Amino acid sequence: MLQIKNLTITHLKDLKVLLENCSFTLRKRDKAVIIGEEGNGKSTLLKWIYDPGLIEGYAEAQGECIATGEKLGYLPQELAEEDKALSIQEFFEQDPSFYDYAPGDTVRKASQLGLAKDFYYSEQSMGTLSGGEKVKAQLLRLLLADPTVLLLDEPSNDLDLATLDVLESLIRDFPGIVLFISHDEVLIERTANMVLHIEQVYKKRESRYQVARLSYPEYVKTRQDQFARQEMQAAEDQRRKRIRDEKLRRIYQSVDYAQETISRQDPAGGRLLKKKMHAVKSMEHRFAREDETMIQRPIREEAIDYSFGLLAEPIPAGKVVLDLDLDTLVAGDTVLSRDIHLHVQGSEKVCIIGRNGAGKTTLLKIIADQLLARKDLETVYMPQQYEDQLDMDLDPVDYLVANTDLRKARITDRHEPAKMRQAREEREKQGIGITEREWRTHIRTYLGALRFTEEEMDHPIQALSGGQKAKVFLLKMNLSRASVLLLDEPTRNFSPLSGPVIRQMLASFPGAIISISHDRKYMEEVCGTIYELTPEGLKKK
Q: How crowded is residue 23: how many other Cβ atoms within 10 Å of its Cβ?
């Protein structure tokens, strides 16, 4: 059993409460998913449960974790920096129990995850593995330690479709407790029998949580039904309140008018009016008490309010975006694939899938080199590792300002007052560009629409959650007015609650998208064409 009692976690930089007085219990065979928007403290909670020392320096916690007789195993969201320099063999040898396993067992576990039987003994460095291979290696070492509780932070990140099926079976069949975070809605729907939902409401000024022993689809439906009923009840209560208050107002005005106009020669009438006014005041107090128990409109964490593609230039249907012919796809001395042909035209939405290590990211980088060099297209590239392009020491506002050419910057804000917009457009016609101060103001407006608080806008990017970093990157792409997006696992860090919004935004993007993804809902809702990268080239699915 794993029990959390009265846990409060506070972010040290801005004293934001991520989780307040949270208590829950997990029992054998519970498969609990933690959901919530980006930056709500999901990963921080997992880290604290495994080792409170992991959150030192950026958060503090008060509470109790009881795991008597349990052995905890933790899969972090990202491979630790110190592990990237290790060879694969050194990585596994860090766990003393590695050599306690019979060779047959280690081979079986590796093959389950689609890895070669001698994978453990490779001299290849961990840092050079593909994203999916890194996850597999960490998961494999974790399972070899025989934990009774699995704490998994984004275990589905970058895994190929075949391994996702294995992961689903692993979670469902694990004999102990599994507490996990995932942005893969299909995985959650197929595995979780319990939901821990962490929310930040009232503009992220108040934390609340909910524990439900339901599957994810049941939880979503139950929550929607509850909100709908509460909304109707609140609306009905407000309607009755308006009628009641109007009736009280008329009575009050009538008695008040009578008091002002009554003759002083009518003391009996005056006493009667005083009694009536006393009754009106008593009624007013009673109504105020009733108002305190009225059904209130449901408060929920707000979804992002942003239209991706707002600034994008549409692509003519006949325009050739990419016409790629590649004899061989090579990584180091290894030939990954041959005879690759890819033609993209107009506003086509393309997704490339394939097994981990097949060379998808390598191929996308080659495509990026070609398209970023073209002058007739505005292209932006979102890598799998945001650190490759984001300046982690800057806050989001400074980063976005530093990466904007103010001579080309344009503001499109549907909330901008008409007079301000007209004045700005007139200045643009005269060749007077946007000032840095104006641009900063509008960037903060855009970030607010993506549900950043004022405090989060001033955090260094390295202190943001993976989903918040992804939002910064999406905003950067949008502000660039790009008509072609190159996306490596674009939905990997968005919560299952904001995922549908992101997919809709990308599906309605007026330009072309060439992407890599294993997100089954993304492929279904966004991508019109899917290719699998095989050793023999790209095969249309």
A: 13
How far is Cα 535 from Cα 511, in angstroms, rounded to an integer? Answer: 30
Whose CA is closest to 479, among 240, 312, 286? 312
- Residue 475 is part of which domain span? 320-540
| CA angle, 305 then 306 then 308, to 5° | 155
Strand extents, DSSP E, 17-148: 17-26, 31-35, 59-66, 72-75
Residue 190 and residue 241 share a domain: no
Same domain for 249 and 184, yes or no, is no
Half-sphere exposure of 166 toward its Cβ, with a 13 Å CA cutoff? 17
**Residue ending a domain, choose from 223, 244, 267:** 223
* Model pLDDT, residue 276: 75
269 neighbors 262 (Cβ within 8 angstroms): yes
Averaged pLDDT, 219-227: 81
Looking at residue 380, which CATH number applies to its domain? 3.40.50.300
Residue 308 covered by a domain: no
Q: How many whole angstroms separate alpha carbon 181 and alpha carbon 106?
A: 26
Question: DSSP secondary structure string, 287-327?
Answer: HHHHHHTSPPPPP-PPPP---TTTTPPP--TT-EEEEEEEE
Taking only the tens place, the pLDDT of each residue in 144-162 is 888 999 999 999 988 888 8
CA end-to-end span of the chain: 45
Q: Is 199 in the same domain as 250?
A: no
Average pLDDT for the chain: 85
- 274 and 415 share one domain: no
* Residue owning tokens 């993304």: 522
Assigned domain for 433 exists: yes
